[in-house]
Amino acid sequence: MKLIVFTLALALAGAVHAAPTFDEVRKAYRSSDAELLDRHGEAIQSLRIDMTVRRLPWVALNDISPALPAAVLQAEDQRFYQHDGVDWNAAAKAAWDNLFRTRPRGASTITMQLAALLDPALQPAAKGRSWGQKWDQVKAARELDTQWTKQQIMEAYLNMVSYRGELQGVGAAARGMFGKAPSGLDLSESVILASLLRGPAAGQKVVSQRACALALELRLPSTCSEIQLRIVVAMSRPQLAANLPPAPQVAQQLLTRSGQAVRSTLDAGLQRYAQNVLRQQLAALQGRNVNDGAVVVLDNASGEILAYVGNAGGGEVDGVAALRQAGSTLKPFLYELALERKQLTAASLMDDTAIDISTPGGMYIPQNYDKNFKGYVSVRTSLASSLNVPAVRTLVMTGMERFHERLREVGLSSLTRPAEYYGYSLALGSAEVSLLELSNAYRTLANGGMYGAVTLAPQATAASRRVLDARASFIVSDILADRAARSITFGLKNELATTFWAAVKTGTSKDMRDNWCVGYTDKYTVGVWVGNFDGQSMWDVSGVSGAAPVWRDVMDYLHRGQGSRAPKPPAGVVRQQIAYQPALEAARNEWFIAGTESPVIALVQDLHRAPKILYPGEAAIIALDPDIPDAIQRVFFQAQGGQDLSWQLDGEPLGQAASSYSWRPTPGQHQLALVDANAKPIATTRFQVRGADDAKRQE
349-352 and 514-520 as β-strands: parallel, antiparallel, unpaired? Predict the structure, then answer.
């Protein structure tokens, strides 16, 4: 029998058998589990810390089914309420019977058994208790009976005695063997538990004999066969029966000691709802090879984590903390940077046509999600409809280093490699981020550019600091809430179109391995990821069909009794009626950072643009493909404003620059120039061509 070692040395000093008080015993009791509480004090999750024994929290006698004490009294101590802790009649009868028995029969009362549980010195050795121990046990039992009420003795006994294996106490026994709370034990279950007290390690046959005899004594309606069947089921349970744990990842983070009760920032109802919604969506997507997901909900004002669903249940992976490719969810921070630096406005026109960008690793050719190009579109449309080519053009404008630094500033600490490692694909989310950090970055947008840490433990609101321009953050939020602007890609009716104000962005990583939906209202930020923890690709799943339904359901739950108001424009933001020439988009009111507004957005024709070499870029390295014959390899020189100008390569004329020029590359260093009619250079660039052998050596 495993023991509870009570730390009562000071209280018992000088009196080896002085009985502790009931309150001291209850206070010293330690559950083997630690308990996670939600923000309101409701128990939401337990975590086993002590692996030597299985104990659940102390159960008051009033919360234990009356059937169990009745069965225990019949089995262990029928004169419990008449004796003074020691049943001398039973002791005398046992002594007489033992004269004629090979196996001694005991006469320990419930009070005597409790005395032995409280004092390890009274525990029997392998050969049983010595006469001295027996006498000390008698004295201790009588002292307990004098100082405690019978109800206190019964309550302590039921909570401290071992029932089966590692199950100690009525809470663990009821949950572990029958999957219910002690208050729900019926007569048959109580008889089974009472039959285990005399021999917790007894086999099913012995327990069945005892339980059937006890049921007969108590005149239960259950037959012996029925009780035997219930014993087989109860004793075959491999572990404590429990519902799907709602917050195991949070419990792992916050619970460290057995008996703890730690209050968290979670909301129990929201946590369970988010978990259920996620499980339902994953079940609906099983046919598309989507098996895993995660959800996090943040309070915008405090940074408290209101829901933290690391996975849909049954796994150890924490999807809230795991790193996955971000997809298009990084685009809002790119456009915010360009707006902040006044390189773009929400009305600026972006060229959504094919683009080839020379990089040290070769050509980078971004594509849109639907493989189509839209021509000239505004920044508002480009961001809301998640167009890839305009995003890459914006990154070229702002610079990779500056954007990389900005992502670090909004808390994406996982971007540990230099900007060059990610390249221009950083605009499309090639970097790996966690759902928690990404959601908190969106919370920064929700708070007008103020960054603050998130927390799972209730505490004073942490100080925040400005990392984004308030004016640019407001405009980005307005774009992300614009269902008309996103309709080019997503249509007007989809899971992103809430009935209240919300700014939201979806994202899908390369090969459909990760699917995101992150967005915010005036009070909450919700982030959702779905995919596969093992990295398998999903089958035809977009942000709107994958993560967005979970995001929408959670947002609707949060706002079931309240709306959401759009943020107020900060100082330095103005609204201007605009019109496009030509009418590429409909006239509208648009937000601008003061000083950047313009009533007319005109598309500058190529002949009015400053001459510039678009490709190859300065210091570009072009690697020849060893698998393509040299005779058919080509590089296309491209320029803007090339009317009336000509190409010149290494001082030799090539042809007119009004259109792209097809050149058969030769290894080596080259200088390309745009020259006028007098062969005067207007724009130049230097680049290098690596031969096939060089390319192989680079590999």
Answer: unpaired
pLDDT score of 695: 40
Distance between CA atoms of residues 622 and 616, nearest Å:
9
3-state SS string over 454-471?
CECCCCCCCCCEECCCHH
Residues 6+ apart with CB under 8 A from 485: 380, 381, 383, 384, 385, 479
CA 298 – CA 301 distance, rounded (Å): 9
Please choose, from the candidates 325, 336, 296, the residue with its C-alpha nearest in 3D space to the C-alpha of residue 551.
296
Quickly list DSSP for 471-538. Answer: HHHHHHHHHHT-TTTTHHHH-SSSTT--SS--EEEEEE-GGG-EEEEEEE-SSEEEEEEEE-TT-PPP
406: helix, coil or strand?
helix
Contact 298, 443 (CB under 8 A): yes
Q: pLDDT tens, 84-133?
A: 888 777 665 655 554 444 444 456 899 999 988 998 888 777 666 677 77
Report the share of the chain in percent with pLDDT over 70: 87
410, 441 contact by CB (below 8 A)? yes
Q: Which two tokens stand for residue 366?
A: 């971004």
Among candidate residues 206, 170, 204, the one with its CA nearest the CA of residue 71: 170
Contact in structure between 69 and 158 (CB atoms under 8 Å): yes
Place of tokens 């603050």: 452
